[in-house]
Predict the structure of FAD:protein FMN transferase.
Amino acid sequence: MADDISRSALRAVFTHTNSLPGVLSRRQKIMGGHGTITLVGGNEQLLEQCWALADTCEQLWSRFRDDSDISRINWAEGKPVRVAPMTHQLIAAMISGNTVTQGTYDPTLLPDVLQAGYVTSAVDSSRSTRLPESARAPGNLKGIQFSDEFVSVPRGTTLDPGGIAKGFAADLIAQFALDQGAYGVMVELGGDIVVQGDAPDGVAWRLGVQDPFAHEGHASIVRLQRGAIATSSQVKKRFGEGENSTHHLINPVTHSSAHTQAQTVTVIAASGARAEVLTKRGFMDSPEEFLSWLPSVGGAGLIIFADGSQQVSPNWSTYA
C-alpha cells in the first residue's frame, strides 16, 4: 500500500510538471528468439534483474535442456519431481488454458510436435528434445498432481511449454518490475507482449501486430493501458517443403499440423499466458466461430489469412 501511495504521488508530480519518468530498454536473445524489456521509471539494476528472471524461466522450462524442470518431469515416468514454484504456476496455467479452450490448447501433444519435425532448437542445433518410449499423445492432463514442492505427471504424459512459457514469463517479469518500483513496464518475449503500469507517453502502450507477409510492416496497431497481446503463426516454424510441409501447431483431434488458411492468429487478453492459449483455438475452429467466441472468454482477436485478408472479432476496434 505504501509503495502504491508513493508511486501515485510521484505520478502527480510528473503530471503537474508536464514531465515523464525516464525510459530504459534492452533487447537480447531469449527463449529461442529475441525479446525486449522496457521500463518506465526504473533503473539499470532493475532491468538487469528482469533479464535475470527471464533467463531463469528459460532454464526451468526449456524442453531442449536435459536439466530443466520440464525435461525432468517428462523423463520421470510418473514419479514425483521437485520443481520451482514458478514451474508449479506454469503447469497450473497450462491446465487452466486447456479448460478455457475446451481442449483445443493441449500441452501434452509433444510427441506429435516432434513427429511434425520440431525436434531441434531453432537457435542451437546441438540441442534437441528426447522423450522416453512411454510418451504418448494426448497425455493425461487431469492426472497431474501437486504436493508441496513436487509435481507428479502420469507415466506417458509429457509437457510442452511452447508459447505459454513465453507469455507466462512475460507476466511474471512485468509484475516483478512493478513490485520493485517501476512505474510501467513492457515485456516482449518472442512476439508475446505484456504491458503494465504507465506507458512512456503517460496514456497507453502503442503496439504493432506484425504483418506475416511484410517483414517491416504492421497489419494493425493497437493501444493497451494494461494486458497482453500474443501472436501464433504457422509461417515461422515449418518443416519440409511444398505441400508436404508441416508446422508446430498441432490439431488435437488429428494429431497432425492444423490444416487452415489462417496464417497468424493474434489475441488480446488480460495476461500473456491467457492470450497465448487462446490463439491456438484460432487454428482449429472456423474463423467466424473463433472470433465470436473470443469475447466470451475475455479476448479480442485478429486473423490474417493466406491471401493477406484479415478478419477481426467484434471487440477488436476497442483497441485498434
